[in-house]
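Thread: Modeling a multi-component assembly for a lab meeting

Hi all, long-time lurker, first post. My supervisor asked me to bring a structural picture of a complex we are working on to next week's group meeting, and I have zero experience with this. I have the sequence lines for every component (270 residues in total). Could someone generate the structure of the whole assembly? Inputs are pasted exactly as I received them:
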Amino acid sequence: MAERTVLEPKNTLLNVSRSKNLPHNPGIRVGDLVFLSGMVAVDPTNGKVRTGSVEEETRMVLSNMKHMLESAGTGMEHAVKLTVNLSDAAGYADMNRVYREFFGGASPPACSVNVVELSFGLKIEIECLAVMPEGEAK
Amino acid sequence: MIDRTIFPAPTRGLDLKQTLGLPQSMVVRSGDLLFLSGVLAVHPGTGERMHGTLTSETHQCLQNLSMILGRAGSSLEKVVRVHAMMYSRIEYDVFNSVYRQYFTPAQAPARTVWSVGILYGLKVQLDVIATV
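Re: Modeling a multi-component assembly
Sure thing. I ran the full set together rather than chain by chain. Output:
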């Protein structure tokens, strides 16, 4: 039986599910897999949702995701699959430009992009499935 | 090589292969993880679609989910990740008010909420990964 652990960001301001009293958690680890909830642009200095351009929101989401994965003991290089939800397909190129800054290496994760309705006028939401680094196995 | 096991649905109504002739299993287990087909508000006995309000459909989905997981040796406490699909974003709070009756916030699964069109005119669908 695999252990199921609730994951939280070290920066507690980014734990939006707790601050907004929502019935989910930022992430769950099972065995060597790390499942993160969909992340939107949250300002790491005050925990508030911050809408902006597609570039700005993407950078904030991926930077928070990096923090979230590192808090869990893993990292962006161990991401397996990302699901990107855009509110408008027109933002695809801008999203990719920033995405490349984070995943421009030789072995980027799998990724699918959808166009969906998002709350608060946000332009992007990203969900991540990652693994623990080798040697961190439980 | 990791195993791949099909689990039966707990009731005839939740058996998509049997009631609807659909080419899908309700639960596939691989390692310690259970991957479920989309859970809809159908009558667990007959498979009849129980169109209703977002509240009634969410209750039905979560009750069906609980049964499906139970049959596969899991439970709501062991859910890992939910893609919660609803027909309209506008009912986000309504959905949450039902959802929190089934999951203790401190232990609730990772979740992403999508507003999408759902087959058969239903209002809610849950795409779930759980552990055993």
